[in-house]
Amino acid sequence: MPNTHDIVQRGLWFEEFDLEARYLHRPGRTVTEADNVLFTTLTMNTQALHLDAAYAAGEEFGQRLVNSMFTLSTLVGASVAQLTQGTLVANLRFGAVAFPAPVFIGDTLYAETTVAAKRLSASRPGQGIVTLEHLARNQDDVVVATASRTTLVWCEGARP
C-alpha cells in the first residue's frame, strides 16, 4: 500500500509538458547483433540486409543494417520513462517518420523529444492531446531517425 512518502517514477501530466523544452532521454542504447536478429525474426522480417552478413557485405553499405522498425521502437521507447510512463492514455497517431542515415550493429542511439503542440481534449475531460517530435542521433551525432507522435495523456489529478 503506497504511503505519503512513496515516490513513483512517472511521465508528465498534460500540464507539465513544456513547449520550449528539449527532453534528452538518457542513457543511450547500444544496438547489438542479438537485438537486430531477435527483433527482425520476431516481426517476421526476412530482409537479407538485416540477417545475412555475407549478402549485406556486397550491398551499398557493406554490412548489415539494423532493422528500421527497431530503431523507431527504440527511439519512442527511450522517451517513455521521462514523458509518458503511467500518464499516457493512448498513442493516437504517428506522423512523419524518417531514417536519414543508416544504423549499424554497434551504434549507440541517443533520443530526444520536443513538444510540437498540446491542447486539452474537447471530448475527453481530464485528458489532453500532446504532439511529440522524436529524434535519434548515433554516437557520432548523426541524425538517424525522426518521428512525430500524437498522444493522449492524463491531466494532473484526473486519472482514476
From TrEMBL:
Residues 20-134 form the MaoC-like domain. It holds the Pfam family MaoC_dehydratas. Signal peptide: none annotated. It comes from the Bacteria. InterPro entries: HotDog_dom_sf, MaoC-like_dom, MCH/BMMD. CDD domains: FkbR2 (cd03451). Belongs to the enoyl-CoA hydratase/isomerase family. This is MaoC family dehydratase. It comes from Orlajensenia leifsoniae.
